[in-house]
Amino acid sequence: MSAPTVEAARVDAGLAIRLEGVSLGYGRHAVLEDLRLDIAPGEVLVIVGPSGSGKSTVLRAIAGLLAPRAGRVLAEGVEVTGPSSDRAMVFQDDALLPWRTVLRNVELPLRIRGVPRRERRAAAESWIARVGLAGCEDRLPRELSGGMRQRVQLARSLAGAPRAVLMDEPFGALDAQTRAGMQRLLLDVLRDTLATVVFVTHDVDEALLLADRVVVLGRREGHGDIATVLSVPHPRTPDIDRAGLRARIIEEL
Ligand SMILES: Nc1ncnc2c1ncn2[C@@H]1O[C@H](COP(=O)(O)OP(=O)(O)OP(=O)(O)O)[C@@H](O)[C@H]1O
């Protein structure tokens, strides 16, 4: 049997993700209960909510890093029981391997998929150029700025052609200008990928800029620790009442 190629690794559809009555927590601490959410293939779904509302916890469950206490997380109808290269994570903290160069970090998901050396090098170089880092292939992560390291993370997560990209405050540590540049870059690269994106942020304006749909995790009176979910439709139409939508999200927080 021949080794898989980049072509074979490329997917032509985003992942459909379903949270079916999912309850999540740590030890005796319940974080969320009976969460129901359908994320459509190719959708950019942004989760906002106050600190501690469980945004990262939901993302971990979708990534297969945290098992639900009740209910199921389904990817394409199949229960998620662990991590998969189909679902790539991008973290706020720098999750690059510090001893590997930019090129070798970006190549990693392709190597894991068994893509032959020459092909994975070409794909990694093309992604590095795509995120504006051509010429930095041989640098180590510590030789890069925070914004550049996030670009490498983005390139690495997309190089493996995942069907879903799960992003946990990826731009949270960046200054305002670098952050705005990364948001533009993300919108640009997402146009060319069919991957489903689940993006966690504190920032309502970032949510409105990136999202097809925004989910607000918020605490409601009488629900104690248990958060509820509110979906705000956000069609990409020029006449959308952004101010009204923003006010509504802030009201729910
Ligand atoms: N590994 C863990 N062990 C125990 N409790 C945890 C763990 N991770 C998170 N928690 C708790 O679960 C709750 C939800 O945390 P989570 O990180 O999902 O919230 P968040 O909305 O992402 O917060 P933030 O915006 O501050 O990152 C919090 O009360 C937190 O203290």
TrEMBL record:
InterPro entries in the record: AAA+_ATPase (IPR003593), ABC_transporter-like_ATP-bd (IPR003439), ABC_transporter-like_CS (IPR017871), ABC_transporter_ATP-bind (IPR050166), P-loop_NTPase (IPR027417)
Signal peptide: none
Keywords: ATP-binding, Cell inner membrane, Cell membrane, Membrane, Nucleotide-binding, Translocase, Transport
Residues spanning the membrane: none
Domain ABC transporter: 17-244
GO molecular function terms noted in the UniProt entry: ATP binding
Full protein name: ABC transporter ATP-binding protein
Organism: Microbispora hainanensis
